[in-house]
Amino acid sequence: MPIKILIADDHAVFRGGLHALLDKEDDVEVVGETGSGLETLRSIENMDVDVLLLDISMPGLSGSKVAQEALKKYPSLAIVILTMHEDEYYLQELLRVGVRGYVLKKSTSTEVVQAIRAAYRGDSYIDPALAQLVISPYVGRPSPRQPDRIGVLTPREREVCRLLAYGHTNAEVAEQLFISDRTVETHRTNIMGKLELKGRSELVRFAIDNGLLKFE
Asked: Which of 44, 119, 147, 156 could cross-link with 78 by S-S, CB 3.0 to 4.6 Å?
């Protein structure tokens, strides 16, 4: 019996290319494609799925939340994250949630297929490019908390920070909060300036340390 795959990614062209790639494998069958978080959860309920290939940045409901909800109902479901995020904090938290694989979109087709097969067997697979993060002494070690830092953000800035940390783009944040892209960019600039953050990885770490991201 082939391994039944559901591809969840908001980019149709990427889904199509991945579907075509997997069709070449004798032991793999793509049973469906989805473009949003809620659609993915509905499809899991209505389809026989062995492995879910899931992007982190999904409209409506983030990939992290989709993984949590799916594993609550279907603990045996194998989830492989397929993403552009080379971030130890996403990797750390998603593995803790229970995903079995984490592969970068820039990886080779061989690595994607290897991840699928490993996850289906019940094993874990981490993209070789991220191997150093798994053994990093900093993975799993929380940075010193600074409770007063979050107090400098307004409620709206906290919400923007949370959505950005989940991997949403400015446009996606704007859509969810019913504000303009330019307003989101202004909030983003203010957040980075107030907190003295140098990039997305530091923003993600801040969000995790201050309870803005919920993984369970």
From this structure: 119
Contact 81, 99 (CB under 8 A): yes
- The model's pTM is 0.65
Helices and strands: H and E segment counts in the chain = 10, 6
49-87: per-residue pLDDT in tens? 999 999 988 888 888 889 999 999 999 999 999 988 877
Distance of alpha carbon 125 from alpha carbon 100, whole angstroms: 6
DSSP symbol at 27: T
- The values of phi and psi at residue 205, to 5°, are -60, -45
Query: Can you tell me the distance from the alpha carbon of 169 to that of 163, in angstroms, rounded to the nearest whole number?
Result: 8
Helices (H), the chain: 12-22, 37-46, 63-73, 88-97, 109-121, 131-135, 155-165, 170-177, 181-195, 200-209
Domains of the chain by start residue, with CATH: 3-135 (3.40.50.2300), 147-209 (1.10.10.10)
Exposed/middle/buried for 85, CB within 10 Å: 0-12, 13-18, 19+? Answer: buried
